[in-house]
Amino acid sequence: MGVNIRAQETVTKYHSTVDKASTLIMNRVFAPWYWPDWLYYSLPVGKGFKSAIDILHGFTKGVINKKKAERQLQNGYTEHENEDNELDIGKRKRKAFLDLLLDQNAKDDTPLTDDELRAQVDTFMFEGHDTTAVAMTWALFLLGNNLEQQEKVHEELDEIFGDSDTPASVKELSQLKYLERVIKETLRLFPSVPFITRKLTENVKLDNYTLPKGISVTLAILLAHRNPKVWPDPMKFDPDRFLPENSKDRNPYAYVPFSAGPRNCIGQRFALLEEKIMLAAILRKWRIKSVKTFDTIEYGGTLILRPCEEVLIHFTPKK
What we know:
- It is a peripheral membrane protein.
- The protein is mainly alpha-helical.
- The protein contains 13 helices and eight strands.
């Protein structure tokens, strides 16, 4: 977001509150007696959920307000001053997501309200750390269980980076085709968000059944990604499923780790790039071996498909 949050206690409280809110949401989903708002928010569990949401919204509002204050202080910074700085010659200053939102808001005839702006930032704050972290955990776990595929990753990394210790450039990251397929296959087996919901805007007929307009439908991404009619031997870790020749005839909705359509994840390209950067940095230095296997690891979903136990991995230096 382009804002430096220095208080570790504040960040930790935000993260723990995200976990609490996620658990409470899932508990409500599977408890129909909690569905009526008037009942839910009159009970201790509902009051606890409201308190958690207030904390999350307060954190996000604080980030937005701090960014707005920083922008006001920079109003005196002129283009002429920027041109006089020789270090800036030939460089394009990249803006943070929140800056882009506020810039667009200033231009629009119908700008986002404060609540709408907060909702956009909420999405990036929540989905921008938890989902990516768990996806990288699963990728390392799977590579630690599939040493042949891990060796292919090391060969690709060695070919592109050699003995260099410099951080990966954008061009080099784009060349990591096999690592990209590893990430995609990880998200097939362990989609960070295992299900989504959609409210129907029209009647939908499925075989002999009609789902009426106005109801909410839950779509199980995890089950779709493990459907043997679409994915042969679905529990096998095989990054080559995503080779162009193996993907060309596949239904585009068979693989939707970031959802699909007009309400898909707006940060999916950023998430994939972030995962590639982190995994490349780790695997350039280490070989890994998982302690538990795919069949023995326990995992489950709140809003995020996460392990229910510690993921133990042995790290061995490559050099």
